[in-house]
Amino acid sequence: MKRAAIACFLFAVSTAPAPAQSPNTLSPEERAAGWTLLFDGTTTAGWRGFQKTVFPAGGWAVEDGTLKCLGQKGGDILTTATFTDFEFAWEWKLSPKGNTGVKYFVDERRGNATGAIGHEYQLIDDEGYDAEPLSAKQKTGGWYDVLPPRTAAAKPIGQWNQSRILVRGTHVEHWLNGTLVAQYETGSAESAAGIAASKFKDVAGYADKIPTPILLQDHSTVAWFRTLKIRPVPVR
Fold it and tell me: Which residues of the chain carry a pLDDT beneath 70?
């Protein structure tokens, strides 16, 4: 092989994109950084129904490496483990007109069979959801009904999105596809004002940061979750 050809070959190899990581796996670098998987891609181990000791008998399924909400009122599901200061990341996609969310700061003494109460990272079909008009505080990536997302960053319905929640001390961040879309301090005046104007204004302790499971909402629409992973973070 001539030198010019060799050089071109080496350049092509060095600039080729790295192969995509398989869903529901961790790289050696992620393991070293303290990440652990919350879903193994094949079982419901580590998950149970809200206010229950076992996983729901219906309404959810493990399908093609995803935790799939079937839209059949199986109820919310949550991790059996709880977390305090953490970074939680996951991939998700929705069906048309889909509506769901990820909740944290969940106290199982609040809520009932129709749903848990906690701070919610909203996931919804911003353009197609038509069960009710959506306010800015009900759009994807926001703190549901309390704080709107700064910008629209979701991919078209049917495509996979990447989201992340960071909880460090009283500071919370919502990330969507690499964009910081919401952040707040749990005890701030901004948070208090948002809560006072929300449906949660009369929920005792709603503003508080508490040790929490990670909860996936069943809002009677079809949604898929995968590569759910978490790591502890130090408080600065």
Answer: 1-19
